Fold NADH-quinone oxidoreductase subunit NuoK.
Amino acid sequence: MFAPPEAYLVLSAAVFCIGVFGLLTRKNALLFLMSVELMLNAANINLVAFSFYWGNITGQTFSLFTMALAAAEVAIGIGIILVLYRNFNDIDVTEATTMRW
């Protein structure tokens, strides 16, 4: 009826690898945020899959905390992106190396 845990682990590994690839190859700050979200969602898939496999609710609880962390990360990240756009008229992260105090 349900998929075996290995299927969830393969899905999670694929989503995590896509997130790492996006983090390493993009210059756009919004794509950075989306890549980090993909990596956090891959961790959530693992937590929920193992929680279901072992029959306890601990993994699902940690998954909720991870979602709260992701929401806080997006709120701070959008603020940083707005500052980048205001100072450089672009959200390319390579331009931010010229920022001074």
Notes: The CA atoms of residues 12 and 42 lie 5 Å apart. The two ends are 58 Å apart (CA to CA).
